[in-house]
Amino acid sequence: MNVSERLYSKLKSSGLDFFVSVPCKFLDGIISILEKDKEVIYTPVTREEEGVGILAGAFLAGKRPALLMQNSGLGNSINAICSLLNYYEIPVVLVISHRGTSGEKIEAQLPMGKATIKLLEASGIPCREIKKSSEIQLVDELIDQGFSQNRTVALLFPQSFWEESGEGL
Amino acid sequence: MKRYQAIQLIMDEVTDEIVICNIGHPSQELYLIKDRPRNFYMLGSMGLASSIGLGIALSQPGKVVVIDGEGSVLMNMGTLATIGINQPKNLNLFIIDNESYGSTGFQPTFTSQGIDLEKIAASCQIRNSKLCREMDDCRRTIRASLEDNSGPSCVIIKTDKRMPDHLSPVPYDSIYIKKRFMESLSASIK
C-alpha cells in the first residue's frame, strides 16, 4: 500500500464515515480512493468553510465526519470552526496537508504555513503532526479524543510526510 | 408580507421535518412561532444553514427544511452548487429574502439590485426553484415544494424590509440546542 492508501485505511478503521474535501496535490491519492469507496459518504465542496457546515450537519445526524484540506483552507474556515464546531461542541476531524513546511517549493505557501499551528492553538483545536508514514498509527489517539470529548481535532501532515513516499510530487 | 408571517407559513406545513434555521432574527422568530426539539437554531457561523441542512440530508432519510436568508446565501453561494451536484431529494431550502441584512441595521443586499437567486439556484441544478411574494401563492408554493420528492427544492420568499414586532433571544444555550436536536433525530434514525 502507498502512503495515501495506508492513511485512508487508518482513518476509515478509526470509524470516520463522512468525508468532504477541497483538493491539495498531496491529498489527490486519498481523494481518488474516496471517489470509489461506496461504504462512506463523500462529496467534494467548493470551499472549506462550507465543508465545516456540511460536516456539522453530518455529526448532528449521527456520522463521524472528516474534512480533508490544505492548511490554506483552515484560514478559510476559522470562524465556522470557532462559532459552529467549538461553540456547539461538534467534533470534526480536520485532515490537513501542511504546506509551507520544510521542503516547500512555492514561496506563497510560507506565510500560512507558519501561521497554521498558531491558528489551531488560538482556536483551541488539539492537533498532532504526523511527520512520517511510520507515525500513521498515532492518528487513532487524537481521533478518539475528539469524539469522546466532543472536540474538533486536527491532524497535520507536513511536506516531509508526503515526500518520503514521493506522493503528489 | 412580514418575515414572521413567512416563517409561520413554512411551520404551518411542517409536521415531523427537521428544521435548520438561520442565525439572528429568523431563529428568534422561529422559536416564538413553533419551538420544538427538531429545530436547530444557529447562533453563529452566518451563511452555513444550507450547508448544515445538506450534511443532515445526506446522512439520514428524513426530510430537512432549511430556513435561510438571502444575505446568508449570498455569503455561501457555493453550497447551492454542492446541493445541486448531490441532488438530495429530502432537502427543502426556503430563502427568506427581505433584500437587506435585517439583523444588522437593514443594509441592502444585492438581491435589491436585481441579483436573482431563483435563477442561480436553478442553474446550480436545483430544478425545483420558485419565487413567491403574496401570501396565498407562498402557501401553495411551500406546500408543493414539501410534497415534491423528486429532488432538492428552493423557494425564495420575498418579504418586507422592516423590524420584527416580536423579538426575544432564543433562551437556550448552544449545547442544549444540540443535545435536544440530536436526541430527537436519533430516536427516528434508529
Task: Walk me through the structure.
The complex is a heterodimer of chains A (169) and B (190). With 169 residues, chain A is α/β, with parallel strands linked by helices. Chain A has helices spanning 3-13, 28-36, 48-60, 71-76, 78-86, 110-122, 139-149, 159-163, and strands spanning 18-21, 41-44, 65-70, 93-98, 127-129, 153-158. A 6-stranded parallel beta sheet of chain A has the order 2-1-3-4-6-5, sandwiched between helices. In chain A, helix 7 links the parallel strand 5 and strand 6. The longest helix of chain A has 13 residues, at 48-60. The two termini of chain A are 17 Å apart. In chain B, 44% of the residues lie in helices and 18% in strands. In chain B, strand 5 and strand 6 form a beta hairpin. In chain B, helix 1 packs across helix 2 and helix 1 packs parallel to helix 7. In chain B, 46% of the residues are buried.
Arithmetic mean of pLDDT of chain B: 95
**What is the H/E order of chain B?**
HEHEHEHHEEEHEHEH
Shape of chain B: globular
Strand order of the largest sheet of chain A: 2-1-3-4-6-5
Average per-residue pLDDT of chain A, rounded, comes to 95
- The DSSP helix count of chain B reads 8
Low-confidence runs of at least 5 consecutive residues of chain B: none
Helix-and-strand structural type of chain A: alpha/beta
| Beta-strand content estimate of chain B | 15-25%
Helix content of chain A: 40-55%
Number of strands of chain B: 8
From the N-terminal CA to the C-terminal CA of chain B, the straight-line distance is: 40 Å
Give the overall form of chain A.
Answer: globular
